[in-house]
Amino acid sequence: MNPKKIWSNLTVSDLDRTTKFYSALGFKFNGRSDDLTSFLVGEHNFVMHFFLKDKLKANVPIEISDAHIANEVIFTLSAATRDEVNQCAKEVESAGGKIISGPRTFGDGYYDFVFADPDGHKFNVFYTVG
């Protein structure tokens, strides 16, 4: 296998709310249709599609978990400094996200926080010294 690209397909209940949330966090808007809203993330433009749940479920013959209860993946977003982690936490709260664990130091030089978007998808904003 030699894939040229990888992206995520997540389910949401409200495209307007999702578009507003990720736009407020500064994610790069990648387009929208009646079924999905899409964003590009990071230097390599990782694609994140957010589909209306019933639309994705109709085309993917597997059980899709409720992200408010369980997650198959937690996305990690890198931060350049501790201050950037703290600023991101403020932006997430302001945009309507839920802080799962506030900014904290752990291990040997690690600093992070975990949040959930309005549909329960989890993200870890992470900074490490060195």
From TrEMBL:
Residues 4-128 form the VOC domain. InterPro entries: Glyas_Bleomycin-R_OHBP_Dase, Glyas_Fos-R_dOase_dom, VOC_core. This is VOC family protein. It comes from Mucilaginibacter sabulilitoris.
